[in-house]
Write a structure and sequence with these properties.
The chain has 165 residues and is of the alpha/beta class. The chain is built from eight helices and seven strands; from the N terminus they run H-H-E-H-E-H-E-E-H-E-H-E-H-E-H. Strand 5, helix 6 and strand 6 form a beta-alpha-beta unit. The longest helix has 18 residues.
């Protein structure tokens, strides 16, 4: 069995090594991250774009939001575009800052990123902190846009403003 696992790993690395030569490609992967995500998926509920959209439309103007929509992407990603009414909290500060953003651990939270991987891990982390109603947006903002939903686009980014000078 060990020899089979080693040969499988060697095949995966050999395939990925061919792809490694391009500048923008990822590092050689044995598939550990993908395997880890699959284990996390068992414990974290993923929610579709249509489900999130329906929930956001239920917002009561007198009582505020129906769900806390958290963007856990990098600042430069948020600065380019984000889902309207989302709250920015980078993945790196989520655990530290969540209590000031959502003090009640029973409140519904949907976490999103670019494609759904970081948000899956963020949702797991929030569950480990005791949050009871946390979900990850399946497919992230990419699926949100693919479904034809609008995003808030910033008129200019910091880089655009620097370039003017």
């Amino acid at each position: 069995m060990f020899a089979l696992a080693r040969s499988s790993l060697a095949r995966r690395c050999a395939v990925n090594n061919v792809q490694r030569h391009a500048f923008s490609s990822s590092a050689i992967s044995a598939g550990y991250f993908k395997d880890y995500l699959e284990r996390v998926r068992v414990n974290v509920k993923e929610v579709s774009v249509s489900e999130v959209n329906a929930e956001l439309k239920k917002a009561d103007p007198h009582h505020g939001v129906s769900v806390h929509l958290l963007d856990v992407r990098e600042p430069y990603e948020w600065n380019v575009e984000h889902i309207p009414n989302a709250i920015y909290t980078g993945r790196g500060c989520l655990e530290r800052d969540i209590e000031s953003i959502v003090p009640d651990q029973q409140e519904p939270i949907v976490v999103y990123c670019a494609s759904g991987n970081r948000s899956l891990l963020a949702a797991e982390s929030l569950q480990n902190l005791g949050y009871k109603n946390v979900r990850s947006l399946k497919g992230g903002i990419a699926e949100w846009k693919k479904a034809g939903n609008r995003v808030r686009i910033n008129a200019s980014t910091f880089a655009d403003r620097v370039e003017k000078y």
